[in-house]
Amino acid sequence: MITLKGAEVSVKIKEQVQEILAGHDGPAPKLAIVRVGENPDDMSYERGAMKKMEAFGLRVQSYVFPADMEDGAFKEAFKAINEDEDVNGILLLRPLPKQICEKDIENMIDPRKDLDGISPANIAKVFAGDTEGFAPCTAEAVIEVLKANEIPISGKKVTIVGRSMVVGKPLSMLMLKENATVTICHTRTADLPCECRQAEILVAAAGRAKMLNGDYVGQDAIVIDVGINVDENGKLCGDVDFDTITDKASMATPVPGGVGAVTTAVLAKHLARTIR
Ligand code: NDP
């Protein structure tokens, strides 16, 4: 089984970013990372995103607000970032604390700065197959992993486990755009192992540590693991029980070191695209 490494895909995306920026005068585009509170997962994602922007020659600034900030005060602060001409793109770390209405922020964010595809305008574009907007970075990262490794998608049977608005649903639309035949699974799927075994490309985005073992993988399938979980020993792991699929899958992404590393590279590519 071949391990599909995220770092190698990230290098290819860096080249694309450099091509987009070639000949661009003036300061590099700037990402604003907006965080409310001190959630360790958010802070870890923020550190990774900051490192990636800097490595790709892009500007980044994080805006941190207290966890108990009032809805009105946050909206005022967010509006200022949204309207700041020096800010080209925004990454909002979610979920927000419950006193802040997340829906309102999704409606407020300028779609041209909405790099992670949370605004209704960008979601509509993803569902319409219009590539001019911004798709959620993780969903697009799955497509990037396949393309960077020259894995054909057109005509393939793709099964996605998970139907969230962040990963499963937008990814199903991106796969359709690539002419895959898509099956979406969730907690009410009647026979999940059977659905998964049909897949030529299996994408795990359920958020359940090591849930998909070798019984879920068809012979020679390609397995993309989006999950980021912590196992019983406190170690980072995916949704796939990696050691049990090595005789079945032809290729698979590891966790860590797989899709996660590509997600921030896609974010950087989206930021670079704001200059056009
Ligand atoms: P959600 O919890 O929002 O969605 C999980 C989805 O998986 C739901 O649709 C749920 O079904 C389905 N699901 C959960 N358990 C099962 C099960 N036992 N059988 C079948 N389906 C199941 O998670 P997200 O989409 O936000 O994230 C998914 C995973 O991806 C997480 O581990 C998360 O940490 C990771 N992630 C990784 C990123 C990266 O950069 N690599 C970025 C974002 C997320 P139902 O709808 O029926 O409840």
Descriptive account of the structure:
With 276 residues, the protein is of the alpha/beta class. It has 2 domains: 25-110, Leucine Dehydrogenase, chain A, domain 1 (Rossmann fold, 3-Layer(aba) Sandwich); 137-260, Rossmann fold (3-Layer(aba) Sandwich). It is 38% helix and 16% strand. The protein has helices at 6-21, 40-55, 71-83, 102-108, 120-128, 137-148, 168-177, 192-197, 259-273; strands spanning 2-3, 30-36, 59-65, 89-92, 157-161, 181-185, 201-204, 222-225, 229-230, 236-237, 251-252. A 6-stranded parallel beta sheet has the order 1-11-8-7-5-6. Strands 3-2-4 form a 3-stranded parallel beta sheet, sandwiched between helices. Helix 1 (6-21) runs parallel beside helix 9, helix 2 (40-55) packs across helix 9 and helix 6 (137-148) crosses helix 9. NADPH dihydro-nicotinamide-adenine-dinucleotide phosphate is lined by residues 138, 161-164, 166-168, 185-189, 192, 205-208, 211, 226-229, 259-260, 263. Residues 138, 161-164, 166-168, 185-189, 192, 205-208, 211, 226-229, 259-260, 263 line the site of NADPH dihydro-nicotinamide-adenine-dinucleotide phosphate.
